[in-house]
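User
Take a look at the entry that follows and flag anything odd:
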Amino acid sequence: MAESQWRNLVQMFFEQTDRLGKRPFLWAKVDGKYRSLSWLETREKVARLAGVLAAKGVGAGDRVVILSDSRPEWCISDLAIMALGGISVPAYTTNTTEDHLYILENSGAKGAIVSSRALAARFLPAAHRLDNLRFVIAIDDPGILQSLNLEIERWEAALEGADPNPERLRQAITAIERRQTACLVYTSGTGGAPKGVMIPHGAILHNCEGAEDVLSDLPPGPERFLSFLPLSHAYEHTGGQFLPIYLGAEIYYAESLEKLGANFLEARPTIMTVVPRLFEMLQTRITKAVEKQGGLKAKLFARTLELGRRNFLDAKSLSFAERCENKALDIVVRRKAKARFGGKVKALISGGAPLNPEVGFFFAALGLPLLQGYGQTEAAPVISVNRPSDVDMETVGPPMKGVEVKIAEDGEILVRGELVMNGYWRNEEETAAVLKDGWLYTGDIGYLDERGHLLITDRKKDIVINDRGDNVSPQRIEGFLTFEPEICQAMVYGDRKPHLVGLVVPDPDWLGAWAKAHNKKGGLEVLCQDRDLHKALDVSVSRVNKTMSGPERMRRFAIAKQPFTIENSQMTPTMKIRRHIISKEYHEVLEGLY
């Protein structure tokens, strides 16, 4: 698609609807079966909702919160808000009432669209405390028995009474410019209060244009996406919603992590955006299932991984006999592995966090194309990604089409292009700190290799400097620790200290098996003080320490009394640990390790 073809995201949707008409677009489960909305049916609902919002006073620049699980109504709401020149404000479904209160106050939202009763139960107490929030449109029954300090209207009733006028709306859409803010996405706040990232229409369109260029390496044909990540995440918002619209693809909404395997078989996706944690979980499940089968199947699987990895790294390293054997394993092993993902996958695109190269090699060896990328919410969000024709598991690929990347003197990665945000909402100081002379200062440390592939080595703000001045990346060490089968989570500590210490959280399945084998009673809160458990985990920590340089070794550790979760505020909705909160919670424990 030519860059000048679309001025904004809603114009793109309307013109794709003109082309695709009655073809299926959005798929969701209804009474246990996937049912679709066509492009035209979706557009009619967008037009109806836009009419409802306009009647409630929503216009250019007004903010409307979307709090919903992933479903067709999310996409419809997003497009309807933007069609009026408004700004959608995605909210995480894991947010607490206090989180909602902060975002509502900071954004100055005029209204909100909320899906389930459970989500409404946490959102409405925050909404009731504010005067500026005028209305809530409830997709499902919110279960409210008494009137609140705002208007609450049901989705179906609101849309049924609305007058859809797509042509009138189409004329209004033409006034929306590419640099106009489309959405206000709040960062997950690893180090403090979330910041609202103002993402313009053109930034998301620029990301889609770059993604289309990358995907041109894949076999042609109609695309089908399985949307699993929360749409409040900038990665899924662009890659799982607007990229499919850009490509004229179908979107299937996954039900849950527990039902993801079944959804793969039902949706048979060609493309899926995922985070590394999902791949790690899938690798563990597949490996355990094969180990349980044992015998010939386990031997064939191991051989598939061995030859597949060697073929991926250097196909010439295989002898003629090994190439024949590897070909046979395509039928015996890889075909079954691909079938678990629906059998049609062209690309699984990993982002949102660093991918352990070993996980990438595992899936590549099974014939599943895994592409690691890199980005930030402030860049709409994709900056670079491996191309299907040139995958390097050790890197996050070359910058996408139209993206400039340069490395500052201190190693910080700087980015320039239409993908860069308009700034942080009502926060000029923070905006000025990261946007300088058109460049986005990412806060990440890295370099470009001789082929132009980007490597991320550190997070500038997360670097630990010991008392001798050695710089250490805690994320790197934590990544190696959590790849040990006995360890689920880890946090490294030691700024201005003589050496590193830290916290580890045992893998729950491993812990259950260990406790049973050693006749230990109680959960993690009890067992975290158990010396035998500490000795068992010390074996894993020691294995990692052997691969680390002196300053990177974690000399002592404690076992956390509970996992790091979103619910206890020790994990962000994008699955990053909140160091400042964990360090405060375990301050005495960590300091006691010195």
